[in-house]
Design a protein that fits this description.
alpha/beta; two-stranded antiparallel ribbon; SAM-dependent_MTases_sf; PCMT; Rossmann fold; protein-L-isoaspartate (D-aspartate) O-methyltransferase activity; globular; transferase; about 220 residues; EC 2.1.1.77
């Protein structure tokens, strides 16, 4: 993996702790992931700051602290298969690759999909599979998944997508309702999907839909 600035990465871990992220595996994975390689050159100086960063196609790289909070709630284990809906530039997929057995990630914008593939290949992360298309359809041919995470906001609870979870599987998603948005945590129990908790308010861009194809 590309070299990480140790001082700035350690400062980012401190910010994670202050925000309530206590999972050592999550903090270690974020510390080891070189966020700078995912950030456009003009924003590299702020790569390890807790800031959103504009990326291609009018999208943005999420706050590292929010990524940490969501991954902590996702509770990924080393033997898990994880589906990520919304690859973006691949930053969160890179972190997930250090936590899970396999990561499947879907991106609607081809420009982002191809850029993420290029960056992740350069980092030699070989347990990630990238798809171009509509992540809200899931990946039925690769289901069921132990965990599912969405990186864009949706307007209704993701019950259909959650049907691709294994029993006791967890899904984390930003959900917008009545003009406000919050990050919800769901769990599949039998054939039902239960909302476990809310992590708090969020400001994610809406998730874009399309049709999934593997790179």
């Amino acid at each position: 993996m590309s070299v990480v600035d140790p001082f700035r990465a350690a400062r980012l871990v401190l910010l994670l702790r202050q925000a309530g992220v206590r999972d050592n595996r999550v903090m270690s994975a974020i510390e080891k992931t070189p966020r700078a390689v995912f950030v456009p050159p003009e924003y590299r100086d702020m790569a390890y700051d807790n800031l959103k960063v504009p990326i291609a196609c009018g999208q943005e790289l999420s706050l590292p602290v929010v990524v940490g909070q969501m991954l902590q709630a996702l509770n990924v284990q080393p033997d898990h298969d994880v589906l990520e809906v919304g690859t973006g530039v691949g930053y969160q997929a890179a972190i997930l690759s250090l936590l899970a057995k396999r990561v499947y990630t879907v991106e609607r914008f081809r420009t982002l999909h191809e850029k993420a593939a290029e960056t992740l290949l350069s980092l030699e992360l070989d347990n990630i599979r990238l798809f171009h298309g509509d992540g809200m359809e899931g990946l039925q041919e690769r289901a069921p998944f132990d965990r599912i995470i969405l990186t864009g906001a949706i307007s209704r609870p993701p019950y259909t997508l959650a049907q691709q979870l294994k029993s006791e599987g967890i899904l984390v998603a930003p959900v917008e309702k009545d003009g406000s948005q919050q990050i919800n945590v769901y769990k599949r129990v039998g054939n039902q999907v239960e909302k476990l908790t809310t992590l708090g308010a969020s400001k994610f861009l809406p998730l874009i839909i399309g049709t999934a194809r593997e790179l």
